[in-house]
Design goal:
This protein is mainly alpha-helical. It is built from 21 helices and no strands.
Length: 434
């Protein structure tokens, strides 16, 4: 196996986070924008993917990248030069895939900062074997307490602002944890990689919400590996649940059901909100497989375990988003899966106002599901209006997942473009794509 180059991987995935910050929700959208600036259609989505995975440094495109991301070319070129000089280092994940580090910037805004680029420096300077980056000089317990608190803050940032703002912070702290794990003693490593697993799972979710399922799957696998090494059975169960969600999103419902059942195999050991989240997900999978009665029973059981988190910072652990209102939103989803569009409409309209304000993307996702229910019930005007209500949140947060749902709905409504609300939705989407 070739030696990993963490600096190149971090730089590449910083590009991914910066792309989202600049408003390009997909790699293809960014490739199209760069081709437009170049005046030629020579750049492919696959090549952008190689940049973001750290396979290649985009030297020939740095000027246009700086222009498209609105960052200083001199700083970008200097960072790229440091990446090229960095030496590879063996992966810390022995026997598994090399660590795929991502963005190393602390800013949670769209702006490029000198600090963001500067973070790459110490890691590269200490990349040669036998040299320490200096992280191990800090008190380990203090670092872990700090990073644990920052994880809660980043969860809240994600709920309020979405992946465009949270991904850079998650990436920066993952880089610190990876560097720390490579330096500390074997006895202390489980505590570090246990926290790294939590951050990796957050990275997986942020990429999933950005509509990048391949990156989401990689980070879920990494989180699972780290959770296993750390002997963290609770986190391991959560990664099985997340893989189940990803399988369901791909239409592999039998696999999704098996993974969900595996996640709650030892559910007495899991915190209540986590158990509730797994039950709710299993309910939606069963509904998609035609088991509507079973799904509704599972939702009823989840209520006894529901979270009371209204702050959106996961203080109750994974699954804290699974509030009573969220469970009732998923009841609407189960109705929709079983062909009961009118029941789904009633359910969504009751549940949406009850969501805690911090879960604004859950509200937007619910609005999209409500729009789908209206469309299936034969109300294209109300469907388009509901989708339009969700669109600003998708655009502001960089939620490619929600934006893709709105786009799919708009495509189904296109034959009814003579309806004024549908026309408004199509025109708004077309204007945003221009």
């Amino acid at each position: 196996m070739a030696a990993a180059n963490p600096a190149r991987a971090r730089f590449g995935a910083w590009l991914a986070a910066a792309r989202l910050n600049a408003g390009y929700l997909t790699q293809q959208a960014w490739a199209d924008a760069l081709n437009g600036l170049a005046g030629a259609a020579t750049l492919t989505r696959a090549e952008v993917g190689r940049w973001e995975r750290g396979v290649r440094v985009p030297d020939a495109w740095l000027g246009l990248i700086a222009e498209s991301l609105n960052v200083p070319l001199a700083d970008l070129a200097a960072a790229a030069a440091r990446v090229r000089r960095a030496r590879p280092r063996p992966s810390a994940s022995v026997g598994g895939p090399p660590w795929r580090g991502i963005a190393s910037a602390e800013s949670t805004t769209a702006a490029w900062s000198a600090d963001a680029i500067g973070i790459l420096g110490p890691i590269q300077d200490g990349a040669s074997p036998g040299r320490s980056s200096g992280l191990s000089g800090a008190p380990l317990e203090d670092l872990l307490v700090y990073l644990d608190e920052q994880w809660h803050a980043l969860v809240k940032a994600d709920n309020l602002l979405g992946p465009r703002h949270a991904l850079i912070g998650v990436s920066s702290h993952l880089a610190i944890l990876q560097e720390l794990a490579a330096e500390i003693s074997e006895t202390k490593r489980p505590a570090v990689i246990g926290l790294a697993a939590r951050y990796a799972e957050s990275a997986a979710w942020l990429y999933e919400d950005s509509d990048d399922p391949s990156a989401a799957a990689r980070w879920t696998t990494q989180a699972m590996e780290w959770a296993y090494q750390a002997h963290d059975d609770v986190m391991l169960a959560w990664t099985l649940f997340r893989r189940s969600q990803q399988a369901a999103a791909s239409g592999h419902h039998a696999e999704a059901l098996g993974l969900a059942q595996a996640a709650r195999r030892d559910d007495e050991e899991l915190p209540g909100p986590m158990r509730a989240a797994v039950l709710v997900h299993e309910a939606t999978v069963r509904a998609a497989r035609g088991g509507s009665a079973e799904s509704l029973c599972l939702l009823d059981g989840a209520h006894a375990l529901a979270s009371t988190d209204v702050a959106g910072d996961a203080r109750y652990g994974h699954g804290s988003y699974c509030t009573p209102a969220y469970i009732e939103l998923q009841r609407g989803r189960c109705y929709l899966a079983s062909g009961r569009a009118h029941a789904a409409i009633d359910q969504y309209e009751r549940a949406l106002p009850a969501l805690p304000p911090v879960y604004r993307r859950d509200r937007a996702a619910g609005q999209v599901s409500l729009a789908v229910a209206y469309a299936r019930a034969g109300h294209p005007d109300q469907a388009a209006a509901a989708a339009l209500e969700a669109l600003p949140i998708a655009q502001a947060t960089g939620s490619g997942r929600i934006h893709a749902g709105i786009t799919r709905l708009a495509d189904t409504l296109r034959p009814q473009a003579s309806v004024s609300e549908v026309r408004a939705l199509l025109d708004t989407l077309d204007a945003g794509a221009a």
